[in-house]
Amino acid sequence: MPELRKDPIIGRWVIISTERAKRPDDFKKIPVSDHPDQGSCPFCAGREEMTPPEIYAIRNPDTEPNKSGWKVRVVPSVSPFLGLEGGYDSWGVGIYDVLNGFGAHEVVIETPEHIGNMTDLDTEQILNVLKAYRERIIDLEKDERMKYVLVYKNYGKQAGGSKIYHARSNIIGTPVVPKRVKEELEGARVYYSYHDRCVFCDILRQEKEQEVRLVYENENVISLCPFASRFPFETWILPKRHNCDFHTSSDEELTDVARALKIILSKLKKGLKDPHYNYMLHIAPFKRRHPGYWTTIYNDYHWHIEVIPRLTRIAGFEWGSGFYICPTPPEDAAKFLRELEI
Amino acid sequence: MPELRKDPIIGRWVIISTERAKRPDDFKKIPVSDHPDQGSCPFCAGREEMTPPEIYAIRNPDTEPNKSGWKVRVVPSVSPFLGLEGGYDSWGVGIYDVLNGFGAHEVVIETPEHIGNMTDLDTEQILNVLKAYRERIIDLEKDERMKYVLVYKNYGKQAGGSKIYHARSNIIGTPVVPKRVKEELEGARVYYSYHDRCVFCDILRQEKEQEVRLVYENENVISLCPFASRFPFETWILPKRHNCDFHTSSDEELTDVARALKIILSKLKKGLKDPHYNYMLHIAPFKRRHPGYWTTIYNDYHWHIEVIPRLTRIAGFEWGSGFYICPTPPEDAAKFLRELEI
């Protein structure tokens, strides 16, 4: 019999196939890129004029902005979802609500070299990318119009990636807290108010004890396949220290996150043959002091990264019901990834 | 500037691109099937022995079950997500919750002929399919273990459809109310408790007045592109009569739903060049009398069908945030579909 498992954070049920469980080789392979196109890549070192001027960069000493000599560059998106003009402006259209599409959309160019998969960067370079995320979140927090920042990566077409192969990630600042994050915040709050404990900390504790869904662990970070995985080989990276804000992570913590990312992405690349994937950084909303309201504190929340290889298609059942069918039990996925030599 | 629009039912924000809005021809075309494979199709008339025995069929008079002479057949899925064994059995694994994967998974074979797209059936045959849905929901309601029935269709690979071309839809009975439906129920309840009106009825009223998002209307049914469309050319079909239960629809109402489906699917086929699509039927959960509880009545809810052409890919931003980017304003989509001659 399949099992229905409930996500302990947001209460979503997932169907976990236990009988005809899919093995890593059962998924269809789609090559990540037919167009490595190094010759015209706008993100390679030496072509800085092909992007808008940089907002932030980690650079070698004595190099000029928008010239070579950088390690990581952050530039505005040339096709932003949301624009920086205007402010928070909301109006009604009959029964409907509309908000000015204000926000930020930045692109993090993760390497000056023409490398596509973040896992092929060394750990130090991945750390630079994480430091760029941290600095950009700190900077965007200063803009009072922003309520939330979402950092994510699309690698490969199946993951919504573009044709341009060069490794990069996206930073989106939004004037509202996204629904998915709201659900996690509410779930974490309900759990905390009952147990006086963080649901993510409880997950870490139980996963460390049971070990069956653990993939990797170092001093500051744990990586696991979640109990109610939506997708085969879905893997989360969580800090051991209870902290809702990624941007208050120390260099030591970020170094361990970089190590975990390098290892998890390498295992996925080797074990699943360079799958398309997304990752998303979930953090607490910015703590704003609104007139007439107390500041909301999110100390029942716990930031984390969700890595999702895109091996299955989402069909009408998932869209219609919001519950997912995961053909590979997370215990099998974790064992495979844990034991895979890289 | 793009607009952020709020779904009035579940409160999800959607980014609607208004500037570089995508036109119907801007979407990449992927052929629906390379394998029309009529020769070995297990769903064609005359090959009834290739499926499990039928649960329900609409048949010509004097024809035998599991022989030719049917118009619509419903059979158990050969690869069900959920199985019929066991009952409602729930247990804890530390902090986690598990439920026996009990449920029903049935396949509705929509035509004895080897036709792939429902829109190529005539209206009378589409009505037969809707009647089969109605009968199966009525029958599944009798099983006290079922809490919900979801009916949906996957047409084409991008919509999660299989390689077998023959038109069919799926019926899933579940022991829990799916998250997505729960959100709609809660949203509808909150709206009703404030306004003393159904949110869906209010949508119908406003859309009839404004006309800009209307696609088609007949005596019993309205079809529109929702104000906060998640997907380009997303189109809903709603009954004018306030009713939470599809399975209490009259033959006259179902006839008008069949007419609307035929027209909407034909317009999508012609205007978007045979796109892959899903549709989902959203109904209220079964009204069960649980020991110690009052029966929950869902008379603030309103059943409807959501038709979603699969033209865009879902990327990390959508997964991470739960808010969607729709590159075609629903007003443009509705105008295009409304004016398209078929």
Task: Describe, in short, the structure shown.
2 copies of one chain form a homodimer. With 342 residues, chain A is an alpha+beta fold.
So, the CATH homologous superfamily of chain A?
HIT-like
Extract low-pLDDT stretches of chain A.
none
Encode the helix/strand succession of chain A as letters: EEEEEEEHEEHHEEEHEEHEH
Got a strand count of chain A?
A: 15
The greatest inter-chain interface is formed by: A-B, 77 and 77 residues
Radius of gyration of chain A: 20 Å
Q: Figure out the total of helices of chain A.
A: 6
User: How many domains in all of chain A?
Assistant: 1
Report the CATH topology name of chain A: HIT family, subunit A
Q: So what's the CATH class of chain A?
A: Alpha Beta
> Fraction of residues of chain A in helices?
10-25%
Mean pLDDT of chain A: 90
Could you say which structural class the secondary elements and strand pairing of chain A correspond to?
alpha+beta
Q: What's the N-to-C terminus distance of chain A?
A: 34 Å
Explain the overall architecture.
- 2 copies of one chain form a homodimer.
- Chain A is an alpha+beta fold and 342 residues long.
- The first copy, chain A, has 6 helices and 15 strands.
- Chain A has one domain: HIT family, subunit A (2-Layer Sandwich), CATH 3.30.428.10.
- In chain A, the strands form 3 sheets. A 10-stranded antiparallel beta sheet of chain A has the order 3-4-7-9-8-13-14-12-11-10, with helices on both faces. Chain A has a 3-stranded mixed beta sheet with strand order 1-2-15. In chain A, strands 5-6 form a two-stranded antiparallel sheet.
- In chain A, strand 5 and strand 6 form a beta hairpin.
- The longest helix of chain A has 21 residues.
